[in-house]
Amino acid sequence: MLWAGCAIFFNHELSHNFPFGYLASDTYQHQVRVESIKLMGNYRYEAPYIVAGYEDNVGFYQPLLYHIGAIFSYVSGLETYDSTYLLIFILTSFASLIMYLIIRQFNKHVAILSLPLSLLVFSQAPYIGFTWGHWPAVSAQFFLIAFFWALSKINLKNSFILFTIFLSATILTHTSEAVFAAMFLFIYFIYKFIKKDYKTLFKQALIGSILSFIICFYYLVIFKFTWARMQPYSFYAMKAWASPMFGIPSFKYLLIFLSIGFIISLFYFRKKKSTAFLVGLVMLLIGYSNYYGFGHRSFQARFFWPIYLSIFLGAGIYYLIKLIIKKLQTIHSIAIASIFLIILNISAMSSIVPVTARFTAQGLMSQQHWDMFRWFQDNVNNEKILFFYGDFYGQKAILRNTHIPPYRVGTNYFTSILQNKTIKREYMISRLGDHHGVHYAYRKSFFEYGYHAEEEESKDPTYYYSKMRDICTFDYYIFDKVSQQPVFAQYNMLIASELIKKEWIQPVYGNDYVIVLKNNNPGEDCINEKRFD
To answer: How do residues 365-422 score in pLDDT, each as one tens digit?
Structure first.
């Protein structure tokens, strides 16, 4: 799983000199937050450079992934940008193995034959869960599968301990999957009730649920006044997602085996060890919940469909083989599973079956830009910094790696000024931060919150975005020297050349990709407005 999932993608390296393979803003959002928690030693507050400079913004994201990412960094010696990314792939690999254990309770051969399908979590559509930063949803699904396993062991003495651990972990990693856990528990209880085998489940689940609520209470209060307030649940159907989607047709010719396994599953619900079939059916329904109210969260659940639905592949293959081989040996199952593993890894067969992602991606970051970010971390503190155009600066979370609250010139406005062939003193500049999440929530008391964004925007709707600001009030300016569109880099350097005509503005850092200027007299007239040819 690790070889198929991240070895080639990571260029066969555990440790990198800069964040490697980060393809979207959300990946950097999580990377920066893990690093900030490691530096601060706790997650009581968000780091100021994540939340537009505020020092009292409560730590509002589900915290578990960030904590174990920081801990894994200490244990492994890896930088947090490597440790957390690798951890996501490790949890995914373990998720497939836990699902194997659930299926094995039904039939060992079916479990072995189910395993190859798990590789498809690394096919191109689900792979955005890793590269685009759906990390909390991905890691929470590991805990969700562990929760399913805990339910399958509910008759063990003190099984409420397992129940509590994995339900709490799911809640504290990504609450959407906790809702899925509750849905599955409700269906599982009905299933057990029909079979008149529900008393142990009811007792252990009740104790586990109470303990989970106690464990998660502190964060659930934060959740109520942040995410639940800003993004309350509302019913809405969603036929498509802006991101690449994984659906049943994505399995292509494997649908032959999956369909056979699905039909067979309908006849096995009376058997004692049929939890795996129930997992497959329920998560298939949840994967289509975009049609009945769960929006894009259902598409995130589909990232793990190759794991959830693997029981159907294993059952389909097993019962077809049983028509030929009456006494199936373990070695037979391993050999057949190995063949499927090989087929799923041969890209030449892509027109026949799905294939795993096979590419190496450096991502948005370059070594030169990372060196610039590290220079800011080591040399600048509590000063105003302004980013002009950069090809990837639209992925705003990446700019938080300065560890200073960033400002950025609006790309569309920058383009319009360039087209008008003018150099100006005022530009449309955004004060960047995690604004749209929870409006910069801060705690007044345990059960009372304030919201910086709402307070500021009630006085000035453009306080954070779309505001004309004087570039002369900034302490540092960052200009990219190169661009996929050279005219933008040329305009950057034209502005920089005008700025350094003032004796109090000097270059303080530079490399082949970027230059940083220092304004020693913020507020002074720093640039001559003019047109250029």
So the answer is: 999 999 999 999 999 998 999 999 999 999 999 999 999 999 999 999 999 999 888 9
Q: Based on the domain organization, do 472 and 382 belong to the same domain? A: yes
Q: How many domains does the chain have?
A: 2
Q: Which token pair is 138?
A: 């991905």
Q: Does 66 reside within a domain?
A: yes
% the chain with pLDDT above 70:
97
Question: Which residue, among 371, 269, 363, 258, has the nearest Cα to 318 in the 3D structure?
Answer: 258
For 3-26, b/e burial (b = at least 16 CB within 10 A) is ebbbebbbeeeeebebbbbbbbbb
354 occurs within a structural domain: no
10 Å CB burial of residue 92 (0-12, 13-18, 19+) is buried
Are 151 and 188 in contact by the 8 Å Cβ rule? The answer is yes
Would you give the DSSP letter of residue 394? Answer: T
CA pair distance 318, 35, nearest whole angstrom? 47
Rg (CA), the chain: 26
- List Cα–Cα distances, 194 to 187, 191, 266, 320, 395, in angstroms: 11, 5, 15, 30, 51
Residue 373 lies in a domain: yes
Q: Are both 293 and 397 inside the same structural domain?
A: no
